[in-house]
Design brief:
By secondary structure, this protein is α+β, with helices and mostly antiparallel strands. The protein has helices at residues 3-34, 37-40, 58-66, 111-121, 175-188, 200-234; strands spanning 74-80, 83-89, 96-99, 128-134, 147-152, 159-163, 169-173. The protein has 2 domains: 3-37 and 182-234, no CATH class; 43-173, no CATH class. Helix content is 45%, strand content 17%. The strands form 2 sheets. A 4-stranded antiparallel sheet has the order 4-5-6-7.
Length: 235
């Protein structure tokens, strides 16, 4: 069998096997290049917050937090949109959030507190439609747990995740993000976790696509030669 026939056979059959995945790679890659990642992350919806100086009485609150048991290994004093807080981290266990002026324990956050934080964080005309307590990771969210999921009643179905122990906004998820994530899962061929792009299936598909492409490149000079022959015969 000649090189041209081998190349044609390899190119044709491998293209049939991996052709759909190649199409998905191209289509999803085009989407990734067109849509700005800032829009996918809903960064344009984040409300600007100018941090103000911490008010008096903070040192007393920090001392009170230090005196709690177990003793924290790190304290962070923060001025947030919802107020001044002390974030305490421990050698073992989850972090805790305290009021920076009264040393009152704020975590785990209540639903109302999480709603308030999400409303301050996002510029939205629509109200929060529902709040969901999240304990386990999902394809949409793999951040700090437990967390509150606050979904706004807008056209984007924007959901804001607020970590219950720290009060931090840890994720923003819109329909655009969900489309991006679904295409990413197809792109890396990890349809369950949407994270692993080093698994055997995508490696095998990439090798087959590469071999099929090489076969097509090998055929190029033969195609031109066949066309010249056909033109000469027709003349």
């Amino acid at each position: 069998m000649s090189l041209a026939r081998i190349a044609s056979f390899v190119h044709k059959w491998l293209a049939l096997i991996v052709g759909v995945q190649i199409l998905l790679w191209i289509a999803s890659g085009l989407f990734f290049t067109i849509v700005p990642i800032e829009q996918v992350r809903s960064e344009q919806r984040v409300r600007a917050f100018a941090s103000a100086p911490l008010r008096g009485g903070d040192l007393a609150a920090v001392s009170a937090v230090l005196a709690t048991s177990p003793a924290p290994v790190k304290l962070t004093l923060e001025a947030r949109a919802e107020g001044d807080v002390v974030l305490a981290e421990y050698a073992a266990g989850s972090p805790r959030l305290f009021d920076a002026h009264t040393a009152a324990l704020l975590s785990p956050l209540s639903e109302n507190a999480a709603r308030h934080i999400a409303s301050l964080h996002i510029t939205a005309e629509a109200p929060i439609a529902r709040a969901t307590w999240v304990r386990t990771p999902s394809p949409e969210y793999r951040g700090a747990l437990p967390a509150w999921r606050l979904e706004f009643a807008d056209k984007d179905h924007l959901a804001v995740y607020v970590a219950a122990n720290t009060g931090q906004v840890t994720a923003r998820r819109s329909d655009l993000w969900r489309t991006y994530d679904a295409l990413w899962a197809l792109h890396i061929m990890d349809w369950r976790d949407h994270e692993n792009f080093n698994h055997g299936l995508i490696i095998a598909a990439s090798v087959l696509a590469l071999v099929s492409t090489i076969g097509g490149i090998v055929l190029i000079p033969y195609r031109f030669r066949w066309r010249r022959r056909r033109s000469a015969a027709d003349a």
